[in-house]
């Protein structure tokens, strides 16, 4: 765990309000995830794309519950830090792919909750027709209405699961073509969840809704497996 403070990853001008606001949002989001226990050790990463196109992301190896604005660094759309020798999140490509493909402005959050980890390793409810992903299916839950376009519990939403891969570029290539078809976000097997939104608050709301639903599924599977 690397909690020592590096030189600033981005040196914002005192008047760079947009950057300072984005960094503050990321720091606050990290604390909120930590309070829920969704970013154990140094797990998780958080980013924000500003209206001017700049991308702010957590640097690699920090505890997300103890971030400072200096732990938020700038990367380009290829995931490269704009200041040399500062290492952005190892999973930056998964964030920048979202910004490149479907989210011109917004926020991306990655967490490692127990429910996301356990359920992604469990039997899937559904499989894509081409076999490229499994999925967890949610239906009948009032909380489905927390997701965009949903106005009834009588709906069914799926959360795709992709196999984990330490080669993040390869993982990004596998997931990228499906990004427009993930109404809730996606899971990486045995690893965690990715969600996004047009603002940090929207991404956080999506994550909270999704974590609630995952916790419900986990509890129901425990009940169903009782003799
Ligand atoms: C603590 S292991 C988790 C990491 O391997 C990774 O999955 C993760 O979420 C955090 O990586 P990071 O490079 O700090 O953004
Ligand atoms: Zn991770």
TrEMBL record:
Residue ranges constituting the Class II aldolase/adducin N-terminal domain according to the UniProt record: 24-218
The UniProt keyword set, sorted, is: Amino-acid biosynthesis, Lyase, Metal-binding, Methionine biosynthesis, Zinc
Q: Which SMART domains match?
A: Aldolase_II
Which species is the source of this protein? Lichenicola cladoniae
What Pfam families does the record tag this protein with? Aldolase_II
What's the cofactor? Zn(2+)
PANTHER family per the record? 3-OXO-TETRONATE 4-PHOSPHATE DECARBOXYLASE-RELATED, FUCULOSE PHOSPHATE ALDOLASE
What is this enzyme's class at the first EC digit? lyase
A cellular component annotation (GO) from this entry: cytosol
UniProt-recorded Gene Ontology molecular function terms: aldehyde-lyase activity; methylthioribulose 1-phosphate dehydratase activity; zinc ion binding
- Provide the reaction this enzyme catalyses: 5-(methylsulfanyl)-D-ribulose 1-phosphate = 5-methylsulfanyl-2,3-dioxopentyl phosphate + H2O
- Write out the function statement from the record: Catalyzes the dehydration of methylthioribulose-1-phosphate (MTRu-1-P) into 2,3-diketo-5-methylthiopentyl-1-phosphate (DK-MTP-1-P).
Keyword Lyase listed: yes
* Enzyme Commission number(s) from the entry: 4.2.1.109
Q: Where does Zn(2+) bind?
A: 110, 112
Q: Which biological process terms from the Gene Ontology are attached to this UniProt entry?
A: L-methionine salvage from methylthioadenosine; pentose catabolic process
UniProt cross-references to NCBIfam families, sorted A to Z: PRK09220.1, salvage_mtnB
The entry's protein name is Methylthioribulose-1-phosphate dehydratase
What's noted on cofactor binding? Binds 1 zinc ion per subunit.
Recorded family membership:
Belongs to the aldolase class II family. MtnB subfamily.
Q: In which pathway does it act?
A: Amino-acid biosynthesis; L-methionine biosynthesis via salvage pathway; L-methionine from S-methyl-5-thio-alpha-D-ribose 1-phosphate: step 2/6
Q: Which range is the signal sequence, renumbered to this chain?
A: none
